[in-house]
Design brief:
The chain is α/β, with parallel strands linked by helices. The protein has 11 helices and 11 strands. 42% of the residues lie in helices and 18% in strands. Helix 1 runs parallel beside helix 9, helix 6 packs parallel to helix 11 and helix 7 crosses helix 8. The structure holds 6-O-phosphono-beta-D-fructofuranose.
C-alpha cells in the first residue's frame, strides 16, 4: 500500500521548559522542509491547540535559536486539555488545520497528553525534554546537562563563601519526583550528603554522621544536596545546627536551573531527536516516543513507552559517597 504523504506537521512544547527545546524545534522545522512538509508551530502547548494558536514556520523563523534557552513557542501546563471538552477542541483544531502529524516536546505530562491524542486517532511523536531526566523510556532527556552545569556552577560559588565561614550549605536542586539531577550534581560538586526521594533517608546516619566524619578528617565545609521532591531544607538546616553546633544556610537554586544557553550536549541531542522525530512521521512510524537508549536514538511505540520505568543510577550514588571522604 502506498504511504500517505504528510502535508502539515504541528510542533508544540509543553510543561516545564528545558534548555535545548529551541534546538529541537529548529531541527523539526528544517527536517520537515527537507521532506516538503509544512511545519506549523503551536504556541503554548496543548492550550494553544485548543485555541488554534498557531504560526506557520519556515527555515528562517528558526534562525539563531539553538543557543537560546526557553522555547520560542512558549509553553503551558493546560488544565483545559484535561477535560473532555478541551480534548475535543484540540482534536478539532488538528482536523481543521489539516495537521496530519504532531510533535510534542516535553516531559511525562506532555506524553500523557500525546497519548490521549493518539487514542483519538492523532498521529503523534514525543521528544523527551525535561531537566529532571525522569522519562522511563529514555536514558537522557533534553535540558538535563545544561541544568546540571548551571547548578554545579552556582554551588561552586556558594562553596567559596561557605568555606570561608566554615558553614554547612543545604542546597535544594530541582526534581519534583526524581533525584537524577541531585545525584549527578552532588557527584560533580563533591557533596557530603545527597538526599533524594528514591532512597529512604535517615537524618542521623546520612547527614549528621557524614558531617561528623568530615570534621574528623579536617573538613571545614559540608555540602548537603537535597532534591526538591524531598524538600524540608529548613528543617534539615535547623537539625544540623542543633546537633553539630555548626552554622547552616539554605539555598534553593530554583528556576535558574531551567534557563540559560543550552550546553553542546543538549543542542546536539535536541537536534538529533528533532530530526529523528520528523523521520518517524515521514516514514509512517508515528505514535511513538523518541528515546535515547544505549547510545542510540530510537523510537518506542507510545503505548509501550508510557509503561517503561527507569531506576536511579544507584552506582553513581555510591560513587558520590565513596569519594566524598
Ligand atoms: O519538570 C521540571 C520541573 O522543573 C521540576 O523539576 C519542577 O518541580 C517543576 O518543573 C516546576 O514546575 P512549574 O514550572 O510548574 O513550577
Amino acid at each position: 500500500m502506498e504511504r500517505k504523504k504528510l502535508r502539515r506537521v504541528g510542533i508544540l512544547t509543553s510543561g516545564g521548559d528545558a534548555p535545548g527545546m529551541n534546538a529541537a524545534i529548529r531541527a523539526c522545522v528544517r527536517n520537515c522542509l527537507q521532506h516538503d512538509i509544512a511545519p506549523i508551530g503551536i504556541r503554548r502547548g496543548y492550550q494553544g491547540l485548543i485555541h488554534a494558536d498557531t504560526v506557520e514556520m519556515d527555515a528562517r523563523s528558526v534562525n539563531g535559536i539553538t543557543d537560546r534557552g526557553g522555547t520560542i513557542l512558549y509553553t503551558a501546563r493546560s488544565e483545559d486539555f484535561m477535560t473532555s471538552e478541551g480534548l475535543d477542541r484540540a482534536v478539532s483544531t488538528i482536523k481543521y488545520m489539516g495537521i496530519d502529524g504532531l510533535v510534542c516536546i516535553g516531559g511525562d505530562g506532555t506524553f500523557r497528553g500525546a497519548k490521549t491524542l493518539a487514542d483519538k486517532g492523532v498521529n503523534v511523536v514525543g521528544i523527551p525534554a525535561t531537566i529532571d531526566n525522569d522519562i522511563g523510556c529514555s536514558h537522557y532527556t533534553i535540558g538535563f546537562d545544561t541544568a546540571a552545569n548551571t547548578a554545579m556552577l552556582a554551588i561552586d560559588k556558594l562553596a567559596d563563601t561557605m568555606q570561608s565561614h566554615e558553614r554547612v550549605s543545604v542546597v535544594e536542586v530541582m526534581g519534583r519526583h526524581a533525584g537524577h539531577l541531585a545525584v549527578y550534581v552532588g557527584l560533580a560538586v563533591g557533596a557530603t550528603s545527597i538526599i533524594i526521594p528514591e532512597f529512604p533517608f535517615n537524618f542521623d546516619r546520612d547527614v549528621i554522621e557524614q558531617i561528623r566524619e568530615g570534621r574528623m578528617r579536617d573538613k571545614h565545609h559540608h555540602l548537603i544536596i537535597v532534591a526538591e521532591g524531598v524538600g524540608k531544607c529548613d528543617e534539615i538546616s535547623r537539625g544540623i545546627t542543633e546537633q553539630t553546633g555548626l552554622e547552616a544556610r539554605v539555598s534553593i537554586l530554583g528556576y535558574i536551573q531551567r534557563g540559560g544557553s543550552p550546553s553542546a550536549r543538549d543542542r546536539v541531542m535536541a537536534s538529533r531527536m528533532g530530526h529523528f522525530a520528523i523521520e518517524q512521521l515521514a516514514t509512517d512510524n508515528g505514535n511513538s516516543i523518541v528515546c535515547y537508549r544505549d547510545s542510540r536514538i530510537l523510537a518506542v511505540p507510545i503505548d509501550k513507552a508510557m509503561t517503561m520505568t527507569k531506576q536511579l543510577d544507584a552506582y553513581m550514588y555510591k560513587v558520590a559517597y565513596d569519594v566524598t571522604i
